[in-house]
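pasting input
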Amino acid sequence: MRTKEAKLKKMRTRGHKVVLNRSAGGDLGITIMLGLLGVIMFLPMYYVVIQSLKPLDELFMFPPRFYVMSPTFDNFSDLFTLMSDSWVPFSRYIFNTVFITICGTIGNLIFASMAAYSLAKLRFPGRKAIFQLIVTSLMFHSTVNQVTHFIILSAFGWIDTYLSIIVPSMATTMGLYLMKQFMESSVPDTVLESARLDGASEFRTFLTIAMPMVKPAWLTLMIECFKSLWNSGASIYIHSEELKTFNYAINQIVSGGIARSGAGAAAIVIMMIVPIAIFVINQSKIIETMGSSGMKD
Amino acid sequence: MSQENVKTVDKERPVKRDEMSKWQWTWKEMKKNKTAYFMLAPFFILFIVFTVLPVFLSIILSLTDFNMLQVPGWEGLDNYTRLFLEDEIFMLAVQNTLIFALITGPVSYILSLLVAWFVNELPPKIRAVVTLIFYAPSISGQVYLIWKTLFSSDAYGWANATLMDLGLITDPILWFEDANYVMPLCIVVALWTSLGTAFLSFIAGFQTVDRSMYEAAAVDGIKNRWQELWYITLPTMRPQMMFGAVLAITNSFGFGSVVDALCGFPSVDYAAHTIMHHLNDYGGSRYEIGYSSAIAVVLFIIMFGSNILVKKALSKVGE
């Protein structure tokens, strides 16, 4: 009978690590599959960038090329001239998106962190029921509420104001959920207890002890909130042209057809660069937070 | 409601507990934890107003003929009978929604899981790049509009140009204006954008599995990576899978905006008309709030039901 060591020794090694149950054929097959999928995922993203750099004559080339011969930034500057005869200057759309995103994300970070701390670390009657309610809400796509949402917002008189988008976004549940799960797994109760014994108030403990320990979760919460706000398009709650977002403007440009496809691609590139950059910088922290994202039924 | 919480605190502080009634005790605990409620309040109030209240409002309004202008009259279940017996487009929308959800939900879920699993075996630096490639479409907003250029209805679109170049077609295909292509194309685009939060959660989940479990399993006779995945890895990351499933279901019902952007509204012959579109059509454009609320309630029930079914199925993983 072979011992455990003998059996482990027989297994293939990769670098210094023992690699278990891996066959060369399987590795190859998986690499090919991953490669193919990766190409499908990547090509459209790549094509947007290429389109945005093409001068007009290359945009009209048949068949369309997946590379650009004489790259130009004309499409980006065209964005501003293209929209110059519309009601509001192009920069206004960008301002709206940035403004809504910043306000909503900061609000969500503050409110959701406080609520997450309360739900994760304080024991009070009703906490389980409240958390269950929040988890249940993750099961519904928010657009299903759109119509009744409209009624509530008009009761507040918030239709056609920034508030109609900013305030509801502050109570986005995804960020709260991830934050609460992360706090539970990475903030030890003993640390909080000793802070309380030193006479710190509950709010102080939250602010000076718990929050610095969950920095990865802040970033994750922010990117989750940012993602949905940054990408919010034509809202049914906003009618005024000067309050509409960049995404709405992109839709207008792209629907202009082939002649505008360069400018459209340029606008999309501007839109996608920001969230991608944020993700690239924070990837490892976000993955760290996701480690505790699991749902225990 | 508070029975469970009473029990948990009970263990820590057994003193004097039985001298009070349950309600007295709960009230005392609530007063003691005032800060907790204050910290929860700002979020919770907004959550109630903008998430919970709309649901109940939908249920109530679905029984009326509210139209934003007149005082609503009681209709009973009339909206529902109209929806199921008279509204043919609604039945089409239900059918489209289910096709859409039944394909995009499971496929995006399995794709997220498999890709995360493959990615997990790569060295860290390459893993970061590959993760970005798969995750990027889901955070890049309206980048899916590029599919409109790739599949544009003239010869400048990549799809038409390639097919014409190969001599397979002579005239360009009107991709997003042809009822035969609209649905499959929207599904492809939806899948392309679907490797989002759940995907990251899976990647993190795979990283948390303890390596020594694999070694022990190898000795115990696990023969290949698929067995390892099924018997060791997946059961360990069941919480992540549960979370991913909830997100996959939610998203599979929420691709309405992708369809709108690609095909316009209404889509040709209602070929990509989903319940969400029907809801917005009656609620947003025609102001038949009562009727659209009934549609919303039906959608709620479908979403909730599929979540329960999937949770049941997932508890069987690794058995």
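fyi Chain A has two domains: 4-53, 82-290.
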